[in-house]
Amino acid sequence: MSSYAYPEVLVETDWAKANISKPGIRFVEVDVDTKAYEVGHIPGAVGFNWQTQLQDQVRRDIVSKEEFEKLVGGAGITNSDTVILYGDNNNWFAAYAFWLFKLYGHRDVRLLNGGRVKWLAGADLPLTAEKTAVTPTAYRAASADESLRAKLLDVIEIARSSSRPSNLVDVRSPDEFSGKVIAPPGMTETAQRGGHVPGAASVPWARAVNQDGTFKPLEELKQLYLVEAKLNPGKPTVAYCRIGERSSHTWFVLKYLLGLKDVRNYDGSWTEYGSVIGVPIER
Amino acid sequence: MNHRTRVYDSIFEMLPGEENPSPMVRIGKMNPAPAFELYAKLEWLNPFGSIKDRAASEMIRDLESRGELRRGETRASGRGIVEPTSGNTGISLAAMASAKGYAMRAVVPQKVPLEKRVLLRIAGADVDVINDQMCPSPGMGEGSIGIARSYAKAQKDHYVMPNQYENELNVAAHVRTTGPEIWRQTEGRITHAFVSLGTAGTAMGLSRFLKGKNPAIRIIAVQPSEGHDVPGLRNKSELHVTKLFDEKQIDEILEIPFELAYTRVLELCRTEGLFAGPSSGLIYEGARRVLERDTKQKGVGVMMFCDNVFKYVSSMVRHVPGLGEE
Ligand SMILES: Cc1ncc(COP(=O)(O)O)c(C=O)c1O
Q1: What confidence score (pLDDT) does residue B156 get?
Q2: Tell me, what CATH number does A206's domain have?
Q3: From A209, which residue of chain B is nearest by alpha-carbon distance?
Q4: What is the ipTM of this complex?
């Protein structure tokens, strides 16, 4: 097995099974389908709802530091706990939560490799519908680490610059990239225009995972991002998608598996960029 | 049980098999190669309305015989079935489970037509509608399958999951019934079987049985174009979720623009009097393409017409201008 740049941020299902309900280790499930947690979860896991708990409910933004503290403390997690995130769709929203935990300075947060789909496939891996009892804690978050985040102006600057590669990764589907559709069918959050940021490389997020939901080995990831998409590891890199969730998954791959130094997630993503007057768009 | 008078002691006696085959009807005007006998096998005449009666009855019988199902004082206190379904398997399972006194929960993707979701409830199923179309991508377990599996894993005392995507009985059902029916109905003369791919149970089962009888029989599958709206079917990019699919068992896979499924449904209704559903429309288009390659060819082809159009009124309105009342 190739060694990722920071292998400690991934845990395997065997490890997880052995560490269920160990003190100091807390499982958190974050799904696209917010019903999934209630139907069944890893014993002892808590569930976060990405729609109501991981974003600000008034402004368009991530949850504030105070809300994040309330959420994490309310789930009985302490600052010194090891947090294991997992979820459906190959950890798509779990990766978004991972980005938030890092942004708010949680020391030890990891992803369960393979996420929910691999867990479900394991005959000996337990699942329960029972509510997890929690004792709230006084969780303290750090101020948001804005170096993990790209803002609209950063992206416009990259779009207007002629320097190539621009190190922008568009992780949406090929039809969104080409502008054939503005958003996947049935999505409510959308933009005014279709297309992509000029200079962006198209690497749909799910290309980073195997059939069983686990991340591809290092060599394949290198081939995908550094050779095919021609990202320059020496330059700052930005990943974006439609609303900043799929791109957290790629952000994780680039920063922790490939070890690129400066990787940021553009959480405004296409719903923001594709709605701004006068910014350059390519189709 | 008397298939001649068609008087039965229970609906279960009407399930299809060699002695009670679903009918085959020859295609007339819409056959581009007149010397080629082209038949539609009308699966909607099965007791619960689709080809899925075959796999569903096989799977439910197996669960019963292994003692996996339990009637409860109340439906919730027994042990019932949970199954991910695009509708037809669920409707067959729900009808049979209800008639036998078991609970049934169907987990269906959001794109399943309203008619099927309501029919599931009419048949007595609890229905979970899952939005798993957010960003379909290779490798991703399908949402409805994951949720159904979660019920079966987290609530073992209440649910067992037959899982048509992995259950060999879904193939065996066609080896036991559909294949022998066709063999007898065509008196062994069949040269082509035209099928679609959902779980691939039909394609694999027919291939196994028919090629066992005569390896020269061609199994031809159709798939709708990517991003399609043909409930029950899969594009090749979506086939990884079914463990039953083995491309080597199929001679040819034709990809067809999915809208044609709806166009052909209209023609079949209006020209042949066949009230076939969209997957049948797509299969017909596949057969037609094969026959148009050589309109002088001879042979005997059987198209699996999996269900009828009644369950797709809302889909028809969406895809065929002028049918609605707006
Ligand atoms: C309407 C319809 N057509 C075709 C199929 C495909 O059959 P199979 O699952 O055996 O491949 C299905 C099954 O899901 C169906 O519901």
Answers
A1: 94
A2: 3.40.250.10
A3: B139
A4: 0.85
Q: Kindly list the residues from chain A whose CB atom is less than 8 angstroms away from the CB atom of residue B154.
A: 39-41, 127-129
Written as one string, the DSSP assignment of A37-75 is: HHH-B-TT-EEEETTTTSB-SSSSSBPPHHHHHHHHHHT
- Residue A195 belongs to some domain of the structure: yes
d(Cα B21, Cα B23) in Å, to the nearest integer? 6
| Total residue count of chain A as it appears in this document | 283
Is A90 near chain B, with CB under 8 Å? yes
pLDDT reported for residue B138: 44
pLDDT at A193 over 90: yes
Sort out which chain B residues have CB atoms less than 8 A from A41's CB and list them: 154
Same domain, A95 and A183: no
SS3 category, A110: strand
Instruction: Indicate the pTM of the whole model.
Output: 0.89
Q: Residue B305's beta-bridge partner residues? A: B42
Handedness of CA B143, B149, B154, B157 (dihedral sign): positive
pLDDT tens digit sequence for A178-187: 999 888 776 7
Q: Are B163 and B83 in contact (CB under 8 A)?
A: yes
- Nearest residue of A to residue B240, measured between CA atoms: A211
Residue B26 to residues B42, B98, B117, Cα–Cα distance (Å): 11, 35, 32
CA-CA distances (angstroms) from residue A139 to A67, A69, B52?
A: 11, 5, 53
Start-end ranges of CATH 3.40.50.1100 in chain B?
11-50+168-319, 52-160
* CATH fold label, B11-50+168-319: Rossmann fold (3.40.50)
Q: Is B214 on the interface with A (CB under 8 A)?
A: no
Q: Which domain holds residue A123?
A: 7-145
Instruction: Report yes or no: A88 at the B interface, CB cutoff 8 Å.
Output: yes
Number of domains in chain A: 2
Q: Which residues of B participate in catalysis according to the annotation?
A: 52
**Given ligand 1 and candidates B246, B249, B264, B279, which is best to mutate, with the most ligand atoms within 8 Å of its CB?**
B279
A127 within 8 A of A41, measured Cβ to Cβ:
yes
